[in-house]
Amino acid sequence: MEYAVLGGGALGLQAAYRLASAGQKVMVFEREELAGGLASGFQIDDVWLDKFYHHIFRSDKTVIALIEELGLGKLLEWQHPQTVSLIDSKTYQLDSPMSLLRFQPLNMYERIRMGVALAYLKIANPNWLEGKRAHPWLESWMGAHGYEMVFKPLLTGKYGAVYDQISLPWFWARIHDRTAQLGYLRGGFQLVYNTLADRITRQGGKILFNTTVEKVEQLDGRWQVETSQGKWSFDRVISTLPTRLTCKIVPELPQDYRQRYEWGQAYGAHCLILAVDRKLTDSYWINVCDQGYPFTCMVEHTNLRAAAEYGDRHLIYLGNYRAMDDRLFKMSKDEVMKEFVPHLKKIVPDFCDAWITESWMFAAPYAQPIVTTDYREHIPPLHTPLENLWVANMFQVYPHDRGQNYSLELAEQLVKQIL
Ligand SMILES: Cc1cc2nc3c(=O)[nH]c(=O)nc-3n(C[C@H](O)[C@H](O)[C@H](O)COP(=O)(O)OP(=O)(O)OC[C@H]3O[C@@H](n4cnc5c(N)ncnc54)[C@H](O)[C@@H]3O)c2cc1C
User: Fold this and answer.
1) Which one of 61, 154, 181, 240 has the largest count of C-beta atoms within 10 Å of its C-beta?
2) Residue ranges per domain, the chain?
3) Which fold does the domain 2-54+189-264+371-418 belong to in CATH?
């Protein structure tokens, strides 16, 4: 069988790898110039740095197994870096039950109440929570003060005005799936995707980079894939693009399918990355719970990895999720720096612009599905109503938050279903 795989991110590459390993002919179409999609990186000297901050959890079994299978296991290293919340211009560690017990912004009763709510989510079955919204549930279980201080800013940071519509099972997954230990692949997650791409081609598959798929239609009992670089014909097509984009490029998808699944909104992701000449804080991750900052998190990557791996650069991500038509996505890097950098002085009082030695900026559309309570109803099945056309994308991993692990897991599930 000849397969077209649309998209060369984690999901598309893993599906193509499994198909090629099973002796199928595969061709992957990827719009960008390199593999990895949202998890891809860029080069700093001879190492890759993720365009968007990435780490994995101990519970991410599928990605850990793949890293081992690809012979990269020796590069996977685990740490317990510090995660803190920025509240009233001060940072407080909040990344374990012990740190919650010591969490000064709340009184002991509020800490215990928050701990009980989080412990319940750790063990709850998500089906018990389906149909409920995170906002009222967290407010009533944790109490308004604790919720408003810690978790409401996280929800508003990620989801903006619709923060109160977000489904509780999605929040459950954030607590249930995550571990305090974080894993990182020395040299960058790009190595996983370069190795996958290499394995695919060594098994006879093809990957076309810089190739945007524009239209997919049935022709003489086969699927024709029309791209910016030409047309090819296949027996079967797997689209790993967001369902909305798949609907756009496959005009034959029926109306009732579109009504149900061409649904919902997603935010884009934006990261400004700064290289500075010194360590800024002791924390890996700072959740910005204070109002008035133009970014929702500050991630000091070199508190997870050694600055020496990046030529002694200390690397800081300033991250955001925003509506895809937000002004941030139209701003130049200089404009963003002018707006963001002064706020660093509030976190690191003696911060000085001259410490910045380099900067980069990345943005991606369809990076965070907006998981409202009716989201589950609108997740498409893997097979579409059109024969030999499959849709598998990170919008289907709900209630889990999108993550490399879940895209890889879905790819495994898809290939099992197909073969
Ligand atoms: C800010 C941020 C932080 C994250 N942090 C983590 C983390 O810490 N840990 C973790 O595991 N995950 C994290 N993730 C999530 C992780 O990156 C994704 O879940 C995963 O990479 C999704 O892979 P995918 O293949 O499903 O989708 P994508 O990576 O989106 O792949 C889809 C591919 O399709 C391509 N494409 C789109 N349109 C076309 C077209 N018309 N023609 C051809 N190609 C096309 C895209 O270029 C892309 O390569 C993060 C994501 C973001 C945005």
Assistant:
1) 240
2) 2-54+189-264+371-418, 96-176
3) FAD/NAD(P)-binding domain (3.50.50)
CB 111 less than 6 A from any atom of ligand 1: no
CA pair distance 363, 112, nearest whole angstrom? 39
The pLDDT tens digits of the residues spanning 180-236 come to 999 999 999 999 999 999 999 999 999 999 999 999 999 999 999 999 999 999 999
Q: Give the pair of three-digit tokens for residue 69.
A: 């299978």
Per-residue pLDDT tens digits for 237-250: 999 999 999 999 99
Is ligand 1 within 6 A of the CB of residue 213?
A: yes
- Whole-prediction pTM value? 0.96
d(C-alpha 159, C-alpha 154), whole Å: 8
Which uninterrupted H or E stretch holds 417? Answer: helix 404-418
Say how many Å lie between the CA of residue 402 and the centre of ligand 1.
Answer: 9
Q: For 69-96, write each residue's pLDDT tens digit.
A: 999 999 999 999 999 999 999 999 999 9
- Ligand 1 near 268 CB (within 6 A): no
Pocket of ligand 1 contains residue 53 by CB under 6 Å? yes
Ligand 1 geometric centre to CA of 39 (Å):
6
